Amino acid sequence: MMKNLQSTTTLHNGVQMPWFGIGVFKVEEGPELVNAVKFAIKHGYRSIDTAAIYNNEESVGQAIREGIQESGIAREDLFVTSKVWNADLGYEATIAAYETSLKKLGLEYLDLYLVHWPVEGKYKEAWRALETLYKAGKIRAIGVSNFQVHHLQELMKDAEIMPMINQVEYHPRLTQKEVQAYCQEHGIQLGAWSPLMQGQLLDHPALQEIAAKYNKSIAQIILRWDLQNGVVTIPKSTKEHRIVENANIFDFELTTEDMEQINALNQNHRVGPDPDNFDF
Asked: Where are the alpha helices (DSSP H) in the chain?
């Protein structure tokens, strides 16, 4: 049950992952980021999502250390995710990249480590490295990001371990039904990045109507829709009031009719790169 910010989903290896967390995409190193993550921890967030390419792991690590000290929680109470970037998708390079991320974060382990993008001809070796790190007990869970069904199928031809999560662009304009159905069938938890479509849905008339019905913001309606669709969600914000507002979604439930109305907004429209056609 999703009762509060500490509510978790059980990944297929038994690890508990919070349904809701904070993302730090495009937030630069420095006090703004440190304070945002500390705000999140102070207000009950337990999941923090970063990546090597965000170039902000050091500030995230500082915030985690200070947040733990100020809040009195233990490191084990937090769920920290990072991702290996495309330039490091080789077996040895991925292992080295993981150690670099750990050093920057100042942590002894990560709760979740993801292959950030399915770079053709490279992601299988990276996955083999993640399996090695996982079996050595250096990561609690491993997964992928931006993988379509055919990427997952190809990965599993040689993989020993099924990914525990697949984090993809997911919002009412891109509901990823085929990917979600495949993940559900194979016990892979779906996660959402850019759940608010970079703000592009915050004045949509149908969503305004639903938001008024529940006396909630459109952002809160979309984030609640994510959770009721069984999708782990990590919205980004650096403002304390927005961090609090985003998380204030556990005191109501969307009706089946409202869920279906939001589902119907899908246009298979991306704001980020297409995993089958990207160049970085």
From this structure: 31-42, 57-71, 91-105, 123-135, 149-155, 177-185, 205-214, 218-228, 240-247, 256-263
| Amino acid letter, residue 131 | E
Computed from CA positions of residues 182, 188, 189, 190, in that sequence, does the dihedral angle turn out positive or negative? negative
Domains and CATH numbers, the chain: 8-263 (3.20.20.100)
H/E stretch holding 168 reads: strand 165-169
User: In the numeric block, which tokens belong to residue 5?
Assistant: 């910010």
How many angstroms separate the CA atoms of 131 and 127, rounded?
A: 6
The whole-angstrom separation of Cα 169 and Cα 11 is 20
Where do we find the tokens 């440190």? 34
pLDDT range class, residue 124, cuts 50, 70, 90: very high
Average pLDDT over the chain reads: 97
pLDDT confidence of residue 26: 86
Angstrom distance (rounded) from CA 42 to CA 241:
12
User: Other C-beta atoms within 10 Å of 275: how many?
Assistant: 19
Q: Read off the amino acid at residue 153.
A: Q
The amino acid sitting at 243 is I
Place of tokens 């233990």: 74
Active site residues: 54
| 45 neighbors 21 (Cβ within 8 angstroms) | yes
Rounded CA-CA distance 87/94 in Å is: 9
Decide if 11 contacts 141 (C-beta within 8 A).
yes
